[in-house]
Write a structure and sequence with these properties.
Blueprint lengths: L5 E5 H14 L4 E5 L1 H5 L7 H6 L2 E4 L2 H8 L6 E3 L6 H9 L2 E5 L3 H7 L5 E6 L11 H12 L4 E7 L11 H14 L5 E2 L3 H6 L7 E2 L22 E13 L4 E2 L5 E2 L4 E6 L16 E4 L2 E5 L8 E6 L8 E5 L6 H7 L4 H6 L6 E5 L1
Parallel strand pairs: 1-18, 2-3, 2-9, 3-4, 4-5, 5-6, 6-7, 7-8
Antiparallel strand pairs: 1-10, 10-13, 10-17, 11-12, 13-16, 14-15, 14-17, 15-16
This protein binds pyridoxal-5'-phosphate.
The site of pyridoxal-5'-phosphate has 12 residues, from helix 9.
């Protein structure tokens, strides 16, 4: 009997989710976001995404190194480079580099090998990106350098997961004005792909939707969960009214009930802040968490359901229990839960 937590990565769900991207953005090239070890799904288990990408994107150079071991596809380095060493590494790995800060311009302009760059404009999120003036400066500097090829112009939405947020229109218009009908532009992340069709431009950058989680609370757009996190029941107890469970004795039974103890906790990446309204799926039925999440265990109030030691509990990644729901009950977002599954969990490839 396998008594540890397992994350099963569904290959067919990954392919399906990619088809949802194609449905919403049929004309666009796709930058497949595989930063943070493919949003926690493990690079070596997301082969359908790697194989079908036009280009793959990671945040920093170590991630690009790991990715280059398993694919020959172009890699986009979202943070760009910050030193000559990093620039050389990026060139050796055949990466495209984002230029998002004026401090990167001179570094890039002194290259001795050809390089594809992506210019990132700050249209209001104020995190990464060139101002309109810096962008113009960059264009004039780089256009006279035969080694530099400007592959794409991009910007990032701050509020795309709130369709009606006024920032979306402001950023879209700023981008349109600054980039002035140029070819090869990119703004849309998952939320924008699904809800802001005018922002698709030529290149889209889906992340979370590829992994089957929706950026919106009220609509999952037929996306299929790619990661199923499960763990076995390791103990079953009958409690009487008034008996409590777990650290702090914060939960107690209102009436006689059964508690199933599941072998997963915050040491595996299950959120410690999950409240007692958080569902857990056992033998196809939803039950609620009872008491605090421990490092290695959680308790679930299963009432009078019949279960056995070794039965599988699904923590998330089922049509009946999406990771978005667990995130909602834990005061966080699906991104954090998916990227936070720890090294103690066994990762396997599934249908
Ligand atoms: C991570 C990232 C994305 C993808 O965002 P999702 O919300 O996961 O779709 C797109 N663009 C950039 C620049 C990113 O860093």
């Amino acid at each position: 009997m396998n008594m540890r937590a397992i994350a099963t990565i569904s290959q067919s769900a990954l392919l399906h989710n990619l088809s949802v991207v194609k449905k919403y953005a049929p004309q666009a090239k796709v930058v497949t976001m595989v930063k943070a070890n493919a949003y926690g799904h493990h690079l070596n288990l997301v082969t359908p995404l790697l194989e079908n990408a036009d280009i793959l994107a990671v945040s920093e150079i170590q991630e690009a190194q790991a990715l280059r071991q398993i694919t020959n596809k172009p890699i986009l380095l979202l943070s760009g480079v910050h030193s000559r060493e990093e620039l050389q590494q990026a060139l050796d790995l055949n990466c495209h580099c984002v230029v998002h800060h004026s401090s990167q311009i001179t570094l890039i302009n002194n290259i001795t090998q050809a390089l594809n760059i992506w210019l990132k404009i700050d249209t209001g999120m104020h995190r990464l990106g060139l101002s309109s003036e810096e962008y113009q400066q960059c264009l004039s500097d780089f256009n006279t350098n035969p080694l530099i090829h400007i592959e794409c112009i991009l910007s990032h939405f701050a509020c795309a997961d709130e369709c009606n947020h006024p920032m979306n229109q402001t950023q879209f218009e700023a981008f349109n004005t600054i980039t002035d009908n140029k070819d090869n532009r990119s703004m849309a992340n998952s939320a924008a792909i699904l809800s802001l069709p005018e922002s698709l431009f030529d290149v889209v950058r889906p992340g979370i939707m590829l992994y089957g989680a929706s950026p919106f609370n009220d609509n999952h757009f037929t996306l299929k969960p790619a990661m199923q996190l499960s763990a076995p029941i390791v103990s079953i107890k009958t409690l009487q009214a008034g008996d409590c469970v777990g650290y702090g004795a914060s939960w107690s039974a209102n009436q006689q009930t059964t508690i199933a103890i599941i072998a997963i906790g915050y040491g595996d990446g299950y959120p410690r802040h999950a409240t007692n309204t958080t569902p857990v799926l056992i033998n196809d039925a939803l039950h609620l968490l009872a008491g605090r999440v421990s490092m290695d265990m959680i308790a679930v109030d299963i009432g009078d359901a019949k279960v056995a030691i070794g039965d599988k509990a699904i923590l998330w990644g089922d049509e009946k229990l999406r990771v978005e729901t667990v995130a909602h009950h834990s005061g966080t977002i699906a991104y954090e839960l998916l990227t936070g599954v720890s090294a103690r969990v066994g990762f396997v490839s599934g249908k």
